[in-house]
Design brief:
By secondary structure, this protein is α/β, with parallel strands linked by helices. It is about 40% helix and about 15% strand. It has 11 helices and 5 strands. It has a 5-stranded mixed sheet, with helices on both faces. The longest helix has 23 residues. It starts with about 30 loop residues before the first helix and ends with a helix.
Length: about 270
């Protein structure tokens, strides 16, 4: 750093606001509930909320950031109790791994520590997934509805019926959900939703809920990126701002660089055309 000291994690550093939303929940809900000691304030309530958290994240490895705790928990997990649960799990992490005189721990102690660590990670993910943000930036995954697993396909049909035909458009809707009013979402995604009949309701919904600030057509994926998804998929850059329903009139800025055949050429033209 500026003082010549080696960089690294230090005690005074704030905890990073990063969480893995795809954590596998291997333990049973009863195991999580057992992390709450009998003498803890509102012990029964804390156990119930850990059970709800466990149930909500049972499909985390499948759904990842498509999980929406606010929707799945239906406000059962009180915001005020998130901090209480976090402190409880931190205490469990501090006490579940005591060492013996030989510096060894039992398998049961290890299992308890691992469960507390996973539960705390899921709690952090739930808090981040339940918030809204001023800026959401991502390259969405591409997967047609026909190629989705049964569980993922069912979730898309139930929660995102207007965009269910492709995981890319499902993530478009999820990204907009993450935005606060006036928040901006910037995505790299497919182009087919712009014109295919199956996305008509999605387009109508977007025109009623966001301002489309920028739409840049990049052309085939293999030409748009050094390691792209192949030219079978046409790619666009999309920037939208979340607004109230029936937004006021706004301009949509469009840029087409699909005629250029290499990423550097496209990048240079994006700048000059903008």
């Amino acid at each position: 750093d500026e003082n010549g000291d080696p960089l690294g994690v230090r005690k005074e550093m704030p905890a990073p606001q990063i969480a893995c939303c795809g954590l596998k929940v291997a333990a049973k809900p009863e195991d999580w509930m057992a992390l709450v000691p009998d003498d803890a304030p509102n012990a029964q309530l804390m156990r119930q909320e850990l059970r709800l958290l466990h149930a909500s994240f049972a499909q985390a490895p499948l759904l990842g950031s498509l999980l929406d705790p606010a929707r799945s928990l239906k406000d059962d997990l009180a915001t005020s109790s998130l901090e209480t649960l976090r402190k409880l799990l931190e205490r469990a992490l501090a006490s579940e791994r005591p060492t013996t005189t030989r510096g060894q721990v039992s398998q049961a102690q290890n299992d308890g520590w691992d469960m507390a660590l996973t539960a705390k990670g899921v709690l952090e993910a739930a808090a981040l997934l339940g918030q809204t943000y001023e800026l959401v930036v991502t390259n969405v995954p591409y997967l047609t509805g026909k190629r989705m697993s049964e569980g993922l396909g069912d979730h898309a049909k139930r929660v995102f019926p207007d965009s269910k035909s492709d995981l890319a458009t499902v993530f478009l809707e999820r990204a907009i959900e993450f935005c606060s009013r006036g928040g901006v979402s910037q995505l790299v995604m497919t182009q087919n939703w712009l014109f295919l009949a199956g996305y008509k309701k999605l387009r109508e919904k977007l025109l009623q809920s966001v301002n489309i600030n920028l739409l840049a057509k990049l052309g085939g994926g293999a030409e748009a990126f050094e390691s792209g998804p192949g030219n079978i998929t046409n790619i666009c850059l999309l920037t939208v701002t979340k607004v109230d329903k029936n937004p006021t009139r706004s301009l949509i800025r469009g840029i087409d660089v699909s005629e250029r055949k290499t990423p550097p050429e496209k990048a240079a033209l994006l700048i000059t055309k903008a």
